[in-house]
């Protein structure tokens, strides 16, 4: 992984200076601590912060093709680069590095825009075509890696993170109230945006071509197809497990490619345990594993983690996460994540990635994606029960099935209460609604919006989020099963914009750690999408094919274990007697009034209640509202009060770093630096 940044000037505009590019890339030093590279011509400036994983020698970017007509600043990994390189060399292409990055420029030279669909990887690509005077901004199929852009006058600025846009000086960190409100309903902004005004995100599976007039031409180069493959319709559970294992082994084999050691996360759950077991099957050398423990037993999975690590044979490392650890980490999580959060779950993962770095590991495998592609979440069970209930809405027996859903919520008999059933019955008959499975979750989280200021609430437009997603329904969506539709909605509205960002890239790259996801391999996902529903979920039994596969490699305590959602303490870690000073400071009437984003009276009333009860709130929606408000105040404090000094500090750090100017205009900003050499 790395950090990318750049500025494209219109045909009559001045190109960006080298100092502006330095300020931009300096803000991304955490993404690439191994050195910096620059390219400039009369239209574009490209900058790159490097984290060395593949092609350690001679891999400084931006990288070019043979005649220097194509230049790329690239963040990510192309896992099938070896095969693509062999294919391109057979067609006469000459390489000067051993990097996967160089494969992209030669592939584009050979195949043009058809290249993007050929790449098996996780990537954010900024490719400049000097001949056509066109810039390409491209993200991987599932949006694992971030890429933002903004139009300012006759310039287009782009970077891995919004703070880099702010560092260059052309973009001000002003909030977009519409998108802020979206976070307080959907946990994130719509997939094409950010919480900052005018700062857009390249959507997943999308290539944006920026022409010489700075016009944007948007192309979605891939979309999922959850229609069951007729040849797989009668597949047995064992056969489905066989095929899944074959694809996962191939995916892991590719993701073990690196010039540095690769570790593995072990949460104690099914998904990461399967990845760990299969990785050890492929790599019998010394392997490190990593896990998070909690001092609060309600969140802890220590026995399961250690059981798996011992069974598969890894050297296991873990952190014991206390409320004080969450308190200490949360401000850094918000600075790196650049968005408010309605949960604290990213904080322990931030600490975990720090442990990985301190252990001398740069790359880890993780199990994200299995729940989305193989139907492991309770939201899919909830959807199934509500649809079943909707066929006989007056039934007294059918709603009792909800007692088998969300095992870690509403304990002590609350699931039998009329209130619990009424909560899930609302909107139950609207089974044709696009987001039927997700409406209940969003309605619950939207309660948090009452803590926002009247001005922000007035702009709230939840329909805009949903309209954007609905406008990009994949072909054939209407013919998919209800389960498949729910799976796609979870991927589009939760996994990509929230999970892979707030709990993935941002907290890992904050500590210069690259996370790789075998369950998000294209071949794995295409297989999972084509499998019949009955080998994913039968009745309310989930991930059947994966559990059958796991039974071959893991103890029964793991493959038979019910899904336990990853969670972390929220208000109990932040409010009450042990509350950190910043909670009272940021939620004081003065701070609330200063930033003007919240309803001060409503926030104060709920915060006072939380303090009196030591953070033990009546329901999760109150917890999410308070965490969302606190982290919004944190973000406002960061961009308005801390960012200017951070820009100066990071720029000073860059002046002491290794810098490579690969090509420049030749004016007085040029720096003498070595050209990259072949590995």
Automatic annotation (TrEMBL):
Q: Which organism is it from?
A: Azospirillum melinis
Q: Which reaction does it catalyse?
A: L-aspartate + L-glutamine + ATP + H2O = L-asparagine + L-glutamate + AMP + diphosphate + H(+)
**UniProt-listed InterPro entries:** Asn_synth_AEB, Asn_synthase, ASN_synthetase/amidase, AsnB_N, GATase_2_dom, Ntn_hydrolases_N, Rossmann-like_a/b/a_fold
Q: In which pathway does it act?
A: Amino-acid biosynthesis; L-asparagine biosynthesis; L-asparagine from L-aspartate (L-Gln route): step 1/1
What are the UniProt keywords, alphabetically?
ATP-binding, Glutamine amidotransferase, Ligase, Nucleotide-binding
Quote the Pfam families the UniProt record gives: Asn_synthase, GATase_7
PROSITE patterns reported in the protein's UniProt record:
GATASE_TYPE_2
Q: What is this protein called?
A: asparagine synthase (glutamine-hydrolyzing)
EC number(s): the record gives 6.3.5.4
Q: Select a single GO molecular function from the record's annotations and give it.
A: asparagine synthase (glutamine-hydrolyzing) activity
Q: Which family would the database say this protein is a member of?
A: Belongs to the asparagine synthetase family.
Record-linked CDD domains: Asn_synthase_B_C (cd01991), AsnB (cd00712)
User: Domain Glutamine amidotransferase type-2 spans what residues?
Assistant: 2-213
Name of the gene: asnB
């Amino acid at each position: 992984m790395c950090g990318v940044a750049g500025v494209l000037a219109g045909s009559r505009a001045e190109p960006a200076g080298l100092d502006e590019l330095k300020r931009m890339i300096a803000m991304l030093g955490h993404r690439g601590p191994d050195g910096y590279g620059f390219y400039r011509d009369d239209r574009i400036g490209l900058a790159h912060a490097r984290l060395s994983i593949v092609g350690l020698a001679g891999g400084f970017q931006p990288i070019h093709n043979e005649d220097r007509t194509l230049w790329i600043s690239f963040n990510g990994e192309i896992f099938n680069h070896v095969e693509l390189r062999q294919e391109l060399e057979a067609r006469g292409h000459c390489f000067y590095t051993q990097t996967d990055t160089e494969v992209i420029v030669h592939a584009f030279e050979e195949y043009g825009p058809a290249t993007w669909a050929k790449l098996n990887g996780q990537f954010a690509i900024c490719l400049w075509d000097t001949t056509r005077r066109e810039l390409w901004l491209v993200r991987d199929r599932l949006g694992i890696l971030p890429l933002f852009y903004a139009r300012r006058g006759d310039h287009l600025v782009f970077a891995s993170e919004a703070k880099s846009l702010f560092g260059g000086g052309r973009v001000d960190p002003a909030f977009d109230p519409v998108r802020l409100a979206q976070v307080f309903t959907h946990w994130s902004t719509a997939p094409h945006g950010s919480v900052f005004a005018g700062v857009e995100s390249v959507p997943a599976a999308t290539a944006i071509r920026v022409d010489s007039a700075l016009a944007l031409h948007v192309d979605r180069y891939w979309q999922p197809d959850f229609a069951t493959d007729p040849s797989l319709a009668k597949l047995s559970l064992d056969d489905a497990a066989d095929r899944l294992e074959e694809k996962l082994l191939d995916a892991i084999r590719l993701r073990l490619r690196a010039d540095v050691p690769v570790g593995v996360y072990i949460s104690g759950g099914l998904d990461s345990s399967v990845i760990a077991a299969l990785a050890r099957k492929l790599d019998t050398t010394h392997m490190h594993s990593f896990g998070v423990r909690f001092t609060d037993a309600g969140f802890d999975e220590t026995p399961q983690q250690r059981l798996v690590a011992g069974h598969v044979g890894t050297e296991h490392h873990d952190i014991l996460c206390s409320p004080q650890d969450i308190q200490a980490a949360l401000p850094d999580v918000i600075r790196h994540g650049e968005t408010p959060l309605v949960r604290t779950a990213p904080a322990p993962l931030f600490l975990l990635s720090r442990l990985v770095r301190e252990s001398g590991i740069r790359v880890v495998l993780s199990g994200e994606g299995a729940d989305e592609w193989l139907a492991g979440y309770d939201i899919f069970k909830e959807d199934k029960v509500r649809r079943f209930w909707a066929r006989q809405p007056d039934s007294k027996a059918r709603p009792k099935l909800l007692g088998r859903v969300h095992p870690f919520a509403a304990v002590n008999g609350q699931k039998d209460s009329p209130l619990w059933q009424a909560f899930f019955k609302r909107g139950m008959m609207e089974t044709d609604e696009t987001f039927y499975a997700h409406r209940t979750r969003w309605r619950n989280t939207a309660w948090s919006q009452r803590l926002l200021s009247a001005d922000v609430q007035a702009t709230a437009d939840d329909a805009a989020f949903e309209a954007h997603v609905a406008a990009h329904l994949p072909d054939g969506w209407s013919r998919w099963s209800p389960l498949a539709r729910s799976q796609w909605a979870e991927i589009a509205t939760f996994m990509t914009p929230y999970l892979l960002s707030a709990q993935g890239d941002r907290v890992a790259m904050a500590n210069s750690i690259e996370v790789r996801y075998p369950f998000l391999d294209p071949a794995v996902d295409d297989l999972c999408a084509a499998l019949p529903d009955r080998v994913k979920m039968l009745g309310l039994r989930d991930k059947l094919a994966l559990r059958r596969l796991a039974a071959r490699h893991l103890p029964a305590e793991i493959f038979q274990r019910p899904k336990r959602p990853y969670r972390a303490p929220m208000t109990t870690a932040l409010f009450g007697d042990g509350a950190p000073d910043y909670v009272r400071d940021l939620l004081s009437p003065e701070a609330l009034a200063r930033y003007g984003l919240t309803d001060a009276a409503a926030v104060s009333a709920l915060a006072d209640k939380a303090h009196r009860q030591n953070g033990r709130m009546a329901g999760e929606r109150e917890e999410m509202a308070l965490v969302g408000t606190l982290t919004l105040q944190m973000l406002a404090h960061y961009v308005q009060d801390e960012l200017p000094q951070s820009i100066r500090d990071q720029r000073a750090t860059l002046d002491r770093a290794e810098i490579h100017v690969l090509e420049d205009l030749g004016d007085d900003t040029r720096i003498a630096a070595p050209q990259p050499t072949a590995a």
